[in-house]
Design a protein that fits this description.
The complex is a heterodimer of chains A (202) and B (196). Chain A is mainly β. Chain A is 0% helix and 54% strand. Chain A is built from no helices and 15 strands. In chain A, the strands form 4 sheets. In chain A, strands 3, 6, 11, 12 and 15 form a 5-stranded antiparallel sheet that branches. The radius of gyration of chain B is 24 Å and the shape is rod-shaped. By secondary structure, chain B is mainly β. In chain B, 37% of the residues are buried. Classes of the chains: A mainly beta (202), B mainly beta (196). At the A-B interface, β2, β3 and β10 of A face β6, β8, β9, β10 and β11 of B.
Chain lengths: 202, 196
């Protein structure tokens, strides 16, 4: 006997008749990477381009129907403290690939700070200053620069890569006037979480 | 009149017909708009002082389990700080699920907005302070908080607090007028539910 309803969307059992779990929008995968803190020497060699956090999350469409997939990337609270004349920023890179392909990462977000004080002249490079920026946790869409959302056929797999880098654009080369007391160059980047959601589509 | 069939919590079958229940659809189940009570000038606050406080709760009266997330939407925020002091607005939240839940008072120190621009060491005397003032403004921002699955007949309770703090050194200049200012404005909490 054949069922008089679409078994891709509904299921009947002794307990009654119900919708399939994949027949509605839902969260399908999540991953979190923990907080990172770094402290750097105030002068001399800076950190360059340093990877702070990275993660890979995959989801396979094991359901019998096509699913639209989208992601939300939540970065925890951020603090960047830098002694003049260093400038640095945090960048968030997103990458998406399908099946066995390797994702290409692309910068999607940037936040940073830097300060210089003092007057002009050849000795104007070592004045004391410390600048600090804090930014709240934020949730942003996965790959906000892309307007389409991928559709996975049954059996297909999506792979998402998220990387957070701290990039020192410039690092103080001179010794700070008055010594290193009360100087600081450091940062804290909170938990970063990736959530994947799926929306069934006929 | 239609035949009534045995159906799950996400479907309705009654004498009027057969269909999907409200609990099957993703929807906003509760909202709260919270306003700041302390925007403007501030004084030294070594411990956080509440600016925005509030909560949102929802009772799952649907016949099925519901997955709940809360979107915390903050207003654009601003601070003004005088060298050498730091001014930050902390965001914190907590939640609980249960028959009669009461979330603990939130405290967190990793989710903040603000900063400093310090051009004198902390040891400097008030009359020797250099003049330095920083203005930091940010766009509005949202953060998605996964609360979890609320069983039928239970509730969730979500508490939110934004507070201002001035950690570290605080020197009041004697030779010019200082200025310290915070604007937290508002926060909106939106609770979203989907079948689980």
């Amino acid at each position: 006997m054949t069922n008089c309803y679409d078994t891709n969307w509904f299921v009947g059992s002794g307990a009654g008749f119900t919708t399939r779990p994949w027949a509605q929008y839902r969260q399908v995968a999540t991953r979190t990477v923990p907080t990172q803190t770094r402290t750097f020497p105030v002068t001399g060699g800076g950190p360059g381009d340093m990877t702070l956090q990275n993660m890979i999350l995959s989801w396979s469409n094991f359901t019998p129907i096509r699913q639209i997939v989208y992601g939300m990337v939540t970065r925890g609270g951020l603090r960047i403290t830098l002694t003049a004349r260093s400038r640095g920023y945090l960048i968030t890179k997103h990458g998406v690939s399908f099946g066995g392909a390797i994702a290409t990462l692309q910068e999607e977000s940037r936040v940073g700070i830097g300060a210089i004080t003092g007057s002009t002249g050849i000795f104007a490079n070592n004045s004391y200053a410390v600048v600090e920026l804090r930014q709240n946790a934020i949730t942003m869409p996965l790959q906000p620069s892309k307007s389409d959302m991928p559709i996975l056929n049954p059996g297909e797999t999506i792979n998402v890569v998220i990387e957070l880098h701290f990039v020192a654009e410039f690092w103080q080369t001179a010794a700070i006037a008055g010594g290193t007391s009360a100087t600081e160059s450091s940062l804290t980047c909170g938990d970063t979480r990736l959530d994947l959601f799926a929306i069934p589509t006929p | 009149m239609s035949i009534k069939i045995a159906a799950s919590e996400y479907l309705i079958s009654d004498t009027k017909g057969f269909g999907l229940s409200r609990g099957f659809f993703p929807r906003v189940v509760a909202e709260a708009f919270l306003e700041s009570t302390r925007d403007g000038d501030i004084k030294q606050s070594p411990d956080p002082v509440a600016m925005i406080e509030g909560d949102v709760a929802w009772y799952n009266n649907s016949p099925g389990r519901q997955a709940v997330a809360v979107m915390v939407h903050r207003a654009p925020r601003s601070i003004v700080s005088q060298s050498p002091s730091t001014v930050v607005i902390h965001d914190a939240y907590s939640f609980a699920i249960g028959k009669n839940p009461s979330a603990a008072y939130p405290s967190a120190f990793e989710d903040a907005f603000g900063g400093k621009f310090q051009i004198d060491r902390p040891s400097v005397a008030a009359e020797k302070l250099l003049y330095g003032r920083v203005f930091i403004d940010t766009d509005d921002s949202q953060v998605l908080v996964n609360v979890g699955v609320v069983p039928k007949g239970q509730s969730f309770h979500f508490r939110y607090r934004a507070s201002v703090q001035t950690p570290g050194v605080w020197t009041v200049p004697s030779e010019f007028e200082p200025r310290w200012d915070v604007q937290a404005r508002w926060t909106r909490l939106v609770a979203l539910a989907t079948p689980a």
